[in-house]
Amino acid sequence: MKKRNLLVRLLSGIWSGIDSFRKLLHLLLLLLLFAIFVGALSGTTSMLPDRAALLIQPVGVIVEELEGDPFDRAVAELLDESQPQTVLQDIIDALDYASTDERIAAVHIELSSLGAAGLPKLQRIARAIEDFRDSGKPVIASADFMTQQAYFIAAHADEVYLNPEGGVLLQGYGRFRSYFRDAIEKLKLDWNIFKVGTYKSAVEPFERMDMSDADREASLNLIEQLWGTYLEDVAAARGISVAEMEEYTSRFTDVVAAADGDLAQAARDHNLVDELLTRTELRELLIGYVGTEEDSDVNYSAIGMMDYLAHEDLLNGELVAEENIGIIIASGTIQSGSQPPGAIGADSTAALLRRARDDESVKAVVLRVDSPGGSAFASDVIANEIAALQDAGKPVVASMSSVAASGGYWISVGADRIFANPMTITGSIGIFGMIPTYQRTAAYLGIANDGIGSTPLAGQLRPDRAMTDDAKRLVQLVIEEGYDDFISRVATYRGMEKDDVDVVGQGRVWTGADALRHGLVDELGGLEEAIAFAAELVDIPEGEYGRKSIKTELSPTEQMIVDMLGTAKSFGLQFNFLRPEPSSLQRLAGRLEQALAPLAEFDDPKGVYAHCLCALE
């Protein structure tokens, strides 16, 4: 054979090398995809040392369920863009698992990043800590700086440590709002307000410049009960007197002055914490409990809460059985249509209730409510679906979390049994509507509106036209009928006279303890008590029923995508290229959208709302 020339042989060699490299890349890619696929199917978790501390680091707000569409939220977590939130049940479950796990020698609760949390949620965490302490294993709480919420949890630990440069800030509870009447007048807006209920204060910011006497009375009742309970619980947990706690909080400036302006030392002097330790000193202390771990980010032998839960869930499997108590979370503002978790949608929540009705393994349902209410129409849609569930022979037990007021109470009142925490904010049985119009603003800018219609109502509900007296009377009639429907519903389900419901209604907010006294709830207790009672209603003995969480879940395809991406990230693949840096205009638009988001919650088709707007600081 004729020998090929040098150039052909050179090109052939280059091509052969490229082809071999291509095959190698294909092989590596296939191996990577196979590893990702196997990792996604196996649900790999972090290895648990033979002796370790369970590290619980709650971040952001403590919630009943994470907000947002599950797939969007999962992708956001991969991009490190997820909202700072911690699920309450995750903390409870982790402490429960750890109490009987011989490998867990201690629990370290690091509270520097904890955000807001209602007192009932904090009490539930405190109870779980106390149950864990019965195991004889220590609970160590620490933080660089402790907010009021963080300190409540820390106080129930065996040992409480604070950074020397930190502090414990206990501000008490308060209710402060901005009032807009004068601004509305300066903008030449007409804010037409319709309500029933002396204490229905949700509309007050738009018609007043200060808090009404009725709102002040109701708010003071709430604040005093919440603060009194907070002080009593913390004092008992720390082994100090309520008087000592009151001195620290009521004379805080003098207390800090006595410590020469040192916030941390002031807390130590008043026995709120055991010692002041730097991060290095704290690590050394924890190493003394569980040993060192060089590969750990914290330098002591530890496993994070979410890794631990994944590990235990994999070992123990799901908590479902042949006969189950279904658990449905109703958290957030009540709105029309389908809403993602973190909001209560008439259609989406009704769909969850139908799933429970159609699931033969679900014998009863616990509805966990954490809502200030919202759309009256949407509340009624959900209430009707609860009734359908009961008609199918499946009892419903309502379990109130931090807030179950107004529409939150509306969807609870038809339950076979209502459980509330003593400090749950509930009641607020009242209705309101608001229709702002801007015809005066338009006239000031030189814009007029005119026309003709076939009926007296034509054009009367336009925002650029003033409402006539007849239109206002019409809306008020609708509001009054809505209130009558509300108190009639409460009277029917609670076995009360309408006049008696009206007395405790009128939009007034009560604590769970008050609500029990007034006949608005049946028992004081938490989620565990509600689940146990639901099992009793269907005659399932303790230990023979499972718990089935009925919630919006990822589709199989979405779950596979998330698992594969998560495994790829564990291999070191970064997704920063999917997260472009927003421009200044985009950041401004995002802040504006966030500020206006609450307005989107007012979507009732009749403009009628059973909403509390009763947040306490």
User: What is the H level of CATH, i.e. the homologous superfamily of the largest domain?
Assistant: 2-enoyl-CoA Hydratase, Chain A, domain 1
Task: Identify the CATH architecture of the largest domain.
Answer: Alpha-Beta Complex
In total, how many domains does the architecture comprise?
A: 3
Outline the low-pLDDT stretches: none
Number of strand elements: 22
SS-based class: alpha/beta
SSE order and pairing:
Layout: H1 6-42, E1 52-56, E2 61-63, H2 70-78, E3 85-87, H3 88-99, E4 104-110, H4 119-133, E5 139-143, H5 148-155, E6 159-162, H6 181-186, E7 190-196, H7 213-238, H8 242-250, H9 252-258, H10 263-269, E8 275-276, H11 279-290, E9 302-304, H12 305-316, E10 324-331, E11 334-335, E12 344-345, H13 346-358, E13 362-371, E14 373-375, H14 376-391, E15 396-405, H15 407-410, E16 417-420, E17 425-427, E18 431-437, H16 439-444, H17 469-494, H18 498-504, E19 509-511, H19 512-517, E20 523-524, H20 527-537, E21 546-549, H21 556-570, H22 584-600, E22 609-611
Parallel strand pairs: 1-4, 1-9, 2-3, 4-5, 5-6, 6-8, 10-13, 10-21, 11-12, 13-15, 15-16, 15-17, 16-20
Antiparallel strand pairs: 7-18, 14-22, 17-19
Helix pairs in contact: 1-21, 2-21, 3-4, 3-12, 7-8, 13-14, 17-18
